[in-house]
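Protein 1 of 2
SEQ + STRUCT:
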Amino acid sequence: MVKKIVRDPMFLKQKSEPATEADGQVITDLLDTLKANQDRCVGMAANMIGVKKRILVVAMGPFMFPMVNPVITNKNGQYEAEEGCLSLNGVRPCTRWQEIEVDYLDRDFKPKHGKYSGFTAQIIQHEMDHFDGILI
């Protein structure tokens, strides 16, 4: 189900809890909401739809995939960037890593490991900041 985008900074600054298999519907809702906003959004964290769980979704071209309880295990190539967010107005400066490795659970809660670089890595880092209440 497509959900309304949360724009309340007080809510968005709260930390997210680890997700469990009981949160499967949140994954579906996030994918539906990202798809509905794909003209202006490339990633989304669960708190952006009002759920304080460590779930994010990323769009890589026409493909969208979820990451449940992701943890960055390796990173390199620090750089400065400017980002916008569907939940906030304007753009803000931030520090990102060019390449990251991530351990996470897929939609079926099976363990995965991925290596990401460039814009995809930046999206993942932005959404993971949401888990810790970090607003760019």
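Protein 2 of 2
SEQ + STRUCT:
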Amino acid sequence: MAVQPIELSAFLELSASIPVLDVRSPSEYTHAHIPGAYSLPLFSDEERKEVGTAYKQVSRETAIKIGLDYFGPKLRALVEQVESMNTKQVLVHCWRGGMRSAGVAWLLDLYGFRVYTLIGGYKSFRQYIVESFQLPARLHILGGYTGSAKTAVLEKLQRLGEPVINLEALASHKGSAFGHLGLQEQPSQEMFENLLGMEIRKNQFNQCWLEDESWRIGSVLIPQPFYNQMRAAPCFFLDIPFEERLNYIVREYGKASKEELINGVLKIQKRLGGLETKTAIGFLIENKTADAFRILLKYYDKFYRKGLSSRSSQAPAIVQLSAANADPDRLTQLLLTNLP
């Protein structure tokens, strides 16, 4: 049995059933990785730095010897960690498909695992991801003012088997000043791109639904080539009365603590204006949540209208779909019955 180097396409195909082992350092993995990969670092961050410095400043041979000093004591632990995964085959990669993946692959092959390594390493995967944003996409955009239950409608569409890319789920943020509440920490920009790129590739030949988003979702940005396609795609706008949307938003965010809500208002105080910020915070302090959200909803409606006006001049006319309230089931049915 011998280690088998394979190209990215085969690597990703096998990853559906075989564990991917990322042998880069912990900080490299934490920053961004192939979605679903396990971290199996050959070196700690400090060890990697020392080896890299020796490679650049002394020689390749010196760097390898230092690496072996660190690698030797870890041999058994690395094998046992992979053994605990209850698999006979593994996919291994490092940054460029160099010495780190070669060392771990040699060890696991020696022990008896069937080992595949990624030609070009994680760097080749990143190139694949960046290229995905340039691919022609078939998109349907779900629009509507804040409080129109767009995310719930997307989730309903997905349950019905419709292809969906949930940008807010990938970004771990709902896009507003309160978008982080109840969610995990946002991924890095690179990790968000990895997640999005994989979704684009998965749905490349499907007519796919996405929510109408700003370029920025919390701290991450939608890659510009893909965002340009979103702005030129057909948009279906859920037109729901203001008071119904206000009720929906109060139900959605009203359970958050007073401190969290006030901090959310403060995040947009420059754009909201001093008087409106003071008034909204005052309402929150007095437990008048609906009155505070009424101010914020008017602000977000204005902000969203500005975004609609910036759609591509080549985009089809927006399809307006009016509904009495923000009921996700009825809105989904309305949406599907009005598709061209």
